[in-house]
Amino acid sequence: MTKTNMSRRGVLKSGAVAGAGLAVPTIFTAQSAAAYTNEPTGSSVTLGFNVPQTGPYADEGADELRAYQLAVEHLNGTGADNGMLETFSSKALQGNGILGKKVEYVTGDTQTKSDAARASARSMIEKDGAVMITGGSSSGVAVAVQALCQEAGVIFMAGLTHSNDTTGKDKKANGFRHFFNSYMSGAALAPILANNYGTDRKAYHLTADYNWGYTTEEAVKTSTEAMGWETVAAVRTPLTQTDFSSYIAPVLQSGADVLVLNHYGGNMVNSLTNAVQFGLRDKLVNNKNFEIVVPLYSRLMAKGAGANVKGIYGSTNWHWSLQDEGSQAFVRSFGTKYGFPPSQAAHTCYVQTLLYADAVQRAGSFNPCAVAEALEDFEFDGMGNGKTLYRGADHQCFKDVLVVKGKENPTSEFDLLEIVEVTPTAQVTYDASIFGGELGACNPGT
Amino acid sequence: MDAIILQILNGLDKGSAYALIALGLTLIFGTLGVVNFAHGALFMIGAFCAVTLNRILTLSHQVVDPTRTDFLGNPMKVDVPYVFDMFGEAAGQSIIDWSVPLAILFAIPVMVLVGVIMERGLIKFFYKRPHADQILVTFGLAIVLQEIIKYYYGANPIPTPAPEAFKGSFDFGAMLGFDPNTIIYPYWRLVYFCFAALIIGAVFVFLQFTTFGMVVRAGMADRETVGLLGIDIDKRFTIMFGLAAAVAGLAGVMYAPINAPNYHMGMDFLVLSFVVVVVGGMGSLPGAVAAGFLLGILESFASMREVIAFIPGINQVIIYLVAIIILLTRPRGLMGRKGVMED
């Protein structure tokens, strides 16, 4: 009879060793499988749409969300038509999802507050498994969410954000912006202003007291001064200000003959309304008609300011009245689905979603680093702004900029702005290094 | 000199709004002993009365105009307001043009009703509760009202223009012998100031010279004794709440053309109006009015470029700074009465 020398403890020990041995490869496989954050493994892929659903920019956010839903329909091939997929110069997307995976989405509410926006983005990444975050209607929010996406290892496709900083000093390797910026607004506007109002002008700036306001003031100041204008004063106004009368009343006393309103959203609606109430535009100063300029215009804002926008110059990223094929295809899809034309916020969000999907398709992977590589220095057309370059050095799109003017005789409630000039890309292009900041390395996460 | 006159003028209209809201707040606090944080929301609802009447007057039916096309290239549907059908185009247009002054008539019953419902439906249950509870419940109510308005009217400001006759501004400086364009003041703001003065005057006359007003004042001074005399003071106080709501509402109606109404405008005024009430003296009606104008004008001065250059950021803190100084030197406010909120 042979005696086996196996004690209870021995069995346990060897069992544990064997178990650990078996487990090791699984752990390794699991690690190597998830090469990046939220790698989609099933038949669908989740995108995170982070827009202001409450707060002062809620209407803009609602329009962005409509555009995202339309983009998802077009990507999945379930829409009434294919929108810009028909006109987009890259033909990688087939209308069968992204890389064959059905596109699903989750939404978050940024409330136009950086902390709320970060919290909702984090939740979409960690709980819902979003592989890309997009949206936003404020530069403060965009910069904050972009930094979060960089840490988390997902791609951030910025929505409406106009500050130079988003792709300037705060740029990140995982973040991309299609929308134009303050510098481009200044560069596009200045020649038009000089042509229409002359080179001998004295400007008075009222500037929203935050990041975007400063960069816009700086851009418009620099470019108009280069044309011969003089800046009489630049006054910061609190973001929470609603009645601007005490800021506007002293403008005429300063000897200025142009008022530049570096305001956006509700600020712009109120300051412009106040300026018109004070009759500034009926005045003759230095033997010239007093003029008002709004560097960043949006149709939703123009609607809020009503008849006060008539004849006032500004710049915009895109406008529904553009006659190119891409714009028309988008306006047709959006207008048929929702009954009114899309805003510039809707346009940039729609385009960003398609550009992301296309980059994934071309890269053959959702890996943020592969996607970033596919987007960098990508040239495309057919998306409403003519030939566009996604510059690799700062992840900023370079395209034509629209100079617009409040329409004198609008034919409908949407027909508020008319395009004065399409400023060519070359005129608004700048050196990537002028705003400082470092892209850093792309982060795939996990 | 001209800059000073300009900023005083500027302070007047803002001061008018503060005074009107603070007057209502003080009235409610004095009569009911309730700190009503929903008062700003009443101002906002007033402004939306103007928006609503404008919308009612511009209710339209669509007529297809085959000569024009819409943004999708289809024949354009043109909105024709029903008032055009009823009164003809010219008369209809001027009715729409005058929608803000007309909204005063619309707002009075609406605001009184809102006020009475608020008081009977919610606030009366909090009379005997601590002030902290009252603040919490009325603040909550303000948020609810705000969200209701946002749901129906959206988050963006809605332009509500003044009648064409009051567009533009007049050159006050030229009248006083200064250079042209140095002191300009929009006509509508002048209308607003006169309107506010009228309302404030009417409230004082009502409280001073009517039996109802006398009972209310007596109730404010000694509620218990008035009750013992067999007067149903509660009922009168409910009416006072309705009245205070109407005052705030009218302030809002007439403010609509100055700044396009949005759902948040009440909150912007509420905090400042509370400071006004405290500076004026809790429970003092003349104090509320005086402090309203005083702080409105000071705020205007503080946003002058020269002042900001001298003390950066002063425009954002001036009101609170003044409040601190006044409360340190006169703890009951400018015209506060002894015994109010000191128990």
From TrEMBL, chain A:
Signal among keywords: yes
Pfam families per record: Peripla_BP_6 (PF13458)
Species: Thalassovita autumnalis
Organism taxonomic ancestry: Bacteria, Pseudomonadati, Pseudomonadota, Alphaproteobacteria, Rhodobacterales
SUPFAM superfamilies per record: Periplasmic binding protein-like I
Domain Leucine-binding protein, first and last residues per copy: 45-407
Record's keyword terms, sorted: Amino-acid transport, Signal, Transport
PANTHER family tied to this protein: LEUCINE-SPECIFIC-BINDING PROTEIN, PERIPLASMIC BINDING PROTEIN OF ABC TRANSPORTER FOR NATURAL AMINO ACIDS
PROSITE patterns the record matches: TAT
Family, as annotated: Belongs to the leucine-binding protein family.
Protein name: Leucine ABC transporter subunit substrate-binding protein LivK
Superkingdom as given in the UniProt entry: Bacteria
UniProtKB/TrEMBL annotation, chain B:
Membrane topology value: Multi-pass membrane protein
Protein's cellular compartments: Cell membrane
Coiled-coil residues: none
Pfam families xrefs: BPD_transp_2
Listed GO CC annotations: plasma membrane
GO biological process: amino acid transport
GO molecular function, one term: transmembrane transporter activity
Membrane-spanning residues: 16-35, 42-64, 102-123, 190-216, 237-258, 270-295, 307-328
Keywords for the protein's UniProt record, in alphabetical order: Amino-acid transport, Cell membrane, Membrane, Transmembrane, Transmembrane helix, Transport
Top-level division of the source organism's lineage: Bacteria
Record family assignment: Belongs to the binding-protein-dependent transport system permease family. LivHM subfamily.
Official protein name in the record: LIV-I protein H
Organism: Thalassovita autumnalis
Gene that encodes it: livH_7
